[in-house]
Task: inverse folding
């Protein structure tokens, strides 16, 4: 039987970048089987359940290519701090005291927020063993989302040139990390009708040795696994690599075999033209995290230069402490605005390019562009419906502009993933929202009390 969404404005992101007015999308099983004008599809698909998308935009589900599931529970724990203090005094201390229960509660909270703000696919970067990978994988499958989960891998407890700065509860053994990654890949790869994949998440140089990164690269090739790594995020990263290896970051990673079409380079703030050329040649993706990089004062990723060079650029929200939300609409707007003011040029990174970054570029980054990232017959039915009958959206004269500059995550009304409606009329069908919010509130309070950190405001509370 399936579903027929009608009377919407469709942003297809197909090869011709068509926008279909009064458009319709027909879904059977997990796939889109037809797309076009409503009057035509209503004749061809009389047997389907109709969903009226009048006054709405239908577009591909958003793809968040850099997520920390375990950080939703510590949202707002480290605001307005310098990066090393941010990590060593707050984030690592809290995460280093997690139980598997707290890891799963945090993941469920994050998944819920992503669904409710239109994200249908994501890439998690650093799942430490203590978070309970199996419980998190189960939560992802139950949610209906599509995901690449990366097991964290490390062998050094430093951050760049800061020796032994990592909180003891976050330190993991190299041999155990690698074996766990292999075991998890064998257990979970391709589960959920292909929605779940397992990647390798090496910590950056300073928390991983060059020898370990070379070993990870070899393992990735042998097992056809993706690699998700923080890269050139802060100036300290560059200084560390230059002082210890006499190389630029991309040059070194290329020599170690880390770069390739299924490599996600999160952040990529401090890149030279030479770095950009190497990344393009190797086919890797740079994941832009504008909210996180702005809030942590890390710098501004050279997105216009990357795009001009032909590098695939995707978007990411990062985590609860560095961004405070997992809403990709924030990332789209900030991406469009940040580079305009940085270049003093309102024409750089237009709204059309931003939507590509949040959809088809993200799909390409995950090796899934043949399945998701655009609305076309034969592709998986991963799509969202945005309610545009809102004061902050009307009039909706240009749907592309509306998505990037006016819409918000809370405007997403309906979400389909793999042909399944996981949210309808703002009600998530696959998760118990009330229970998740209650458990997350309690778990966050208990964690804070157990660790003994004062995470309140600097202003007095009476």
Result:
């Amino acid at each position: 039987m399936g579903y027929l969404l009608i009377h919407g404005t469709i942003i297809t992101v197909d090869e011709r970048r068509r926008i279909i007015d009064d458009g319709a999308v027909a879904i059977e099983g997990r796939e889109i089987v037809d797309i076009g004008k409503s009057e035509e599809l209503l004749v061809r698909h009389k047997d389907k359940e109709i969903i009226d998308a009048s006054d709405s935009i239908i577009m591909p589900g958003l793809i968040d290519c850099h997520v920390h599931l375990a950080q939703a529970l510590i949202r707002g724990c480290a605001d307005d701090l310098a990066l090393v203090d941010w990590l060593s005094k707050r984030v690592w201390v809290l995460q280093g005291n997690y139980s598997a229960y707290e890891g799963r509660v945090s993941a469920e909270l994050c998944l819920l927020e992503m669904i409710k703000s239109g994200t249908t696919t994501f890439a998690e970067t650093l799942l430490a063993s203590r978070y309970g990978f199996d419980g998190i994988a189960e939560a992802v499958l139950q949610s209906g989302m599509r995901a690449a989960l990366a097991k964290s891998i490390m062998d050094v407890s430093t951050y760049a040139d800061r020796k032994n700065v990592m909180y003891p509860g976050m330190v993991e053994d190299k041999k155990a990390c690698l074996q766990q990654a292999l075991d998890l890949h064998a257990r979970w790869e391709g589960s959920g009708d292909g929605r779940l994949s397992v990647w390798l998440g090496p910590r950056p140089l300073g928390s991983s040795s060059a020898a370990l990164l070379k070993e990870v690269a070899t393992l990735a090739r042998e097992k056809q696994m993706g690699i998700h790594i923080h890269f050139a995020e802060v100036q300290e990263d560059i200084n560390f690599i230059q002082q210890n290896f006499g190389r630029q970051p991309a040059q070194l990673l290329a020599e170690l075999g880390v770069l390739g079409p299924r490599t996600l380079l999160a952040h990529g703030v401090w890149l030279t033209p030479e770095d950009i050329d190497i990344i393009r040649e190797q086919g890797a993706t740079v994941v832009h995290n504008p909210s996180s990089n702005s809030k942590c004062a890390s710098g501004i990723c050279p997105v216009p230069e990357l795009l001009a060079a032909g590098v695939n650029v995707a978007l990411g929200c990062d985590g609860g402490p560095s961004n405070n939300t997992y809403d990709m609409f924030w990332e789209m707007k900030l991406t469009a605005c940040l580079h305009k003011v940085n270049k003093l040029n309102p024409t750089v990174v237009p709204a059309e390019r931003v939507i590509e970054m949040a959809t088809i570029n993200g799909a390409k980054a995950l090796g899934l562009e043949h399945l998701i990232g655009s609305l076309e017959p034969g592709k998986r039915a991963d799509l969202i419906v945005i309610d545009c009958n809102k004061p902050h959206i009307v009039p909706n004269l240009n749907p592309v502009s509306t998505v990037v500059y006016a819409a918000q995550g809370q405007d997403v009304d309906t979400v389909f993933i793999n042909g399944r409606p996981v949210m309808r009329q703002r009600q998530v069908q696959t998760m118990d929202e009330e229970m998740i919010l209650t458990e997350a509130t309690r778990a966050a309070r208990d964690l804070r009390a157990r660790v003994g950190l004062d995470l309140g405001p600097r202003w007095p509370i009476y």
About this structure: The chain has 17 helices and 17 strands.
